[in-house]
Amino acid sequence: MGQIELTLSTKKTEEMKQAYESMLKDAPEGALFAATTPNSSITAYESGKVLFEGENPEIDAEQWETPDAYEEKTKKAKKKPKHGYEPDPGLFNQSHIGSDEAGTGDYFGPVTVGAVYVKAEQMNMLKELGVKESKNLTDSTIQTIAKKLLQLEIPYALVILHNEKYNELQQKGWTQGKIKTMLHHQAITNVLKKIAPKEPMGILIDQFSQPSVYEKHLRAEDATLQNNVYFLTKAESHSIAVAAGSILARASYLQEMNKLSAEAGFTLPKGASAKVDSVAGTILERGGREELEKYSKIHFGNTKKAEAYL
Ligand code: MG
Asked: Mind listing the domains of the chain with CATH numbers?
């Protein structure tokens, strides 16, 4: 048993009355009509209020809920705290810069950030190349697409923070949020320089922190937010520029991992799993913490777990 209440226009309630003509029953006082359907008992009032009660009130109610009201409701339910830096959806189809990072969750290997400027008229071409959310792409597909991307005349910037420098900054007290902030900032600055004096319609960052925190980190390093910067979570699924940045960042991370694996003499696994712990243990045994710091983000919990292997 359930109950659903809708508020509908007079026009809608008139439509309803006609639709349920064969199921009408005596209406209570003040009601426009009442009906019993196989799913629910419906009472509509002059105020526009309509009550659906019974076994499956949602089946009947759904038919009358206007798309507007439904959208409004789901929007409200999904509403996240606004930060004032959300892009207008129109930006996705305009010439803009997108940036995203890779490697932040991986124990081995660098953090990479890719920023790409995509002009409106290039968007279809990029889609044809297969540029899309990299989460749904395999590593080898990402590398293939990245190669093709780099052959195009698309202004981009890649910033790579190698492990030694990463560990140094981290030990200096930089959080990963601050590290990411400064790398995104650098990558975007580099692309802006490449396209100057042209300015993008906007700059979209795949959001990893509140914009106020991002700005706080910039201020601490005497940097300022560029014009028209927007933040959006899962931006790579909306913006082809962010998707392209994400692919370049990931491809660069993979390339660096190949180099590091060659240096280490065996394959360094991605991620931060138990496999990672055991490989870290092997390196520790061979070259101690000093060698491990060349390949890893040493502050991750994996280091402690690796030490337990010794
Ligand atoms: Mg991201």
From this structure: 2-72 (3.30.310.10), 90-259 (3.30.420.10), 265-309 (no CATH)
* Residue 156 bridge partners (DSSP): 116
Question: Which amino acid is located at 46 in the chain?
Answer: E
DSSP H helices in 98-210:
123-129, 139-151, 163-171, 176-195
**Span from the CA of 184 to the centroid of ligand 1 (angstroms):** 11
Say whether the peptide bond before residue 197 is cis (omega within 30 degrees of 0).
yes
Distance 293 CA to ligand 1 centre (A): 24
Q: How far is the CA of 87 from the centre of ligand 1 (A)?
A: 16
Q: What is the mean pLDDT of the chain?
A: 92
- Greater model confidence, 153 or 76: 153
Please give the distance, rounded to the nearest whole angstrom, from the Cα atom of residue 39 to the centre of ligand 1: 46
Q: How far is the CA of 6 from the centre of ligand 1 (A)?
A: 40
What order do you get walking across the sheet with 49-54 strand by strand? 2-7, 49-54, 41-45, 31-36, 24-25
- Cα-to-centroid distance, 294 and ligand 1 (Å): 24
Q: How far is CA 181 from CA 221, 224, 272, in A?
A: 10, 11, 22
pTM of the model: 0.74
**Cα distance between residue 131 and residue 146, in whole Å:** 9
Percent of the chain with pLDDT over 90: 78
